[in-house]
Write a structure and sequence with these properties.
Elements lengths: L9 E3 L1 H6 L9 H16 L2 E5 L5 H15 L3 H4 L12 E3 L5 E2 L2 E2 L3 E6 L27 H28 L7 H4 L4 E8 L16 E4 L5 E6 L6 E4 L5 E3 L7 E5 L1 H6 L9 E3 L7 E8 L6 E2 L3 H6 L9 E2 H11 L8
Parallel strand pairs: 1-2
Antiparallel strand pairs: 2-12, 3-6, 4-5, 6-7, 7-14, 8-13, 9-12, 9-14, 10-11, 10-13, 15-16
Helix pairs in contact: 2-5, 3-5
The structure holds L-homoarginine, 2-oxoglutaric acid and fe (ii) ion.
């Protein structure tokens, strides 16, 4: 359950990564200490920073730099990869085309999903069937992002081993049927700085409205020097998550909340860019298998006094419902 946290903890995960393929990792004191910190952060805030995560700082910077270059292009160039139903909701969306709780967001973005081939998940997968849309400019965009996705997938799996230990005592609960074939989502997001183009009020326009993330774990790689991401604590205060160079902001999604039977929260967060500069964020979402049915883990039911606090969900259904709500249908032809 979320608390009245006032800041987001920073966790050095190097000891976990060093041992995460060791069958005896659960007995390692360094691993246990990281797991203790992750567990506390997940219970108290649902958010934490990870440092010493092994992804080179140069790559974290490079993905943000190519994202800036893309968003700097003329609109006619950007709409060459315009989001469409035919591409399974993959591609570029202009400012205010993404909607949160009915209100258009002050961000532009490119959405990527793990590719879904025709018939792969039957009716469940239909909406998201399609291939990703890569811009030809900047050059190397796809190559850089492919590498980034690969490393974020590995890192997320390893952090999930720590979370699995924290919840169940075994590192492997999120492999196999649950998340052994993980789905992923990536959003490359740009938030215009103030003053905003044709906006009514130059300040406090919402870059991304309050929401929770959908899957297991999110890795946020945000521009240095602009504080814009805010996390809601139990009393409803918005707590900033300022950029800490070289780290990811890591947070829990709706599926992990269900597995944890509510012991962990998928915490509400939003983005307001009040700086004069354009802000970029690369959000990578690590998810369960697309067609898995998610329900509370037995150990978590026991720990929460044998009451089932969370309903079950099919991850793919949850995702499709969210995606269809994020866009006004007429915008997507
Ligand atoms: N794949 C994820 N988690 N994307 C998060 C986007 C949040 C905003 C979206 N309009 C919404 O209302 O959910
Ligand atoms: O821009 C950010 O810092 C966070 C974006 C976010 O919450 C999301 O895309 O789900
Ligand atoms: Fe989010």
């Amino acid at each position: 359950m979320a608390t009245d946290f006032k800041s987001i903890p920073i966790i050095d995960i190097s000891a976990l990564l060093a041992k995460c393929n060791d069958p005896k990792m659960a007995e390692d004191p360094g691993v246990s200490e990281v797991v203790r910190q992750i567990n506390q952060a997940c219970r108290e805030a649902g958010f934490f920073y990870v440092k010493s995560h092994g992804i080179p700082d140069s790559l974290l910077k490079e993905v943000k730099s190519v994202a800036h270059k893309f968003f700097d292009l003329l609109n006619e160039e950007k709409v060459k990869i315009k989001i469409s139903q035919a591409a399974g909701y993959r591609g570029y969306q202009r400012i205010r085309e993404n909607v949160t709780k009915g209100i258009p967001d002050m961000h532009e973005a490119i959405d990527y999903y793990r590719e879904v081939k025709e018939g792969m998940y039957g009716d469940l997968g239909k909406t998201l069937e399609g291939i990703n849309q890569w811009p030809s400019n900047p050059q190397n965009f796809k190559e850089i992002m492919d590498e980034y996705i690969r490393l974020c997938t590995d890192l997320s799996r390893n952090i999930m081993r720590g979370i699995s230990l924290a919840l169940t005592g075994s590192p492997e609960e999120f492999e196999g049927e649950r998340a052994g074939d993980p789905f992923w989502v990536m959003r490359i997001i740009g938030y215009p700085g103030a003053p905003k183009p044709d906006g009514p009020d130059p300040t406090d326009e919402i870059g991304c409205g309050a929401h929770t993330d959908y899957g297991l774990l999110t890795l946020i790689n945000q521009d240095d020097d602009i504080t814009a991401l805010q996390i809601r604590n139990l009393s409803g205060e918005w707590i900033s998550a300022p950029p800490i160079p070289g780290t990811f902001v890591c947070n829990i999604g709706d599926m992990l909340k269900i597995y944890a039977n509510g012991l962990y929260e998928s915490t509400l967060h939003r983005v307001i860019n009040n700086s004069p500069r354009f802000r970029v964020c690369i959000a990578y979402f690590y998810e369960t298998n697309f067609d898995t049915t998610v329900e509370p883990l037995e150990t978590c039911i026991q720990r929460t006094g044998f009451a089932r606090n969370s309903e079950r969900a099919v991850y793919g259904e949850h995702l499709v419902k969210k995606v269809l709500n994020n866009f006004i249908p007429e915008l997507l032809i």
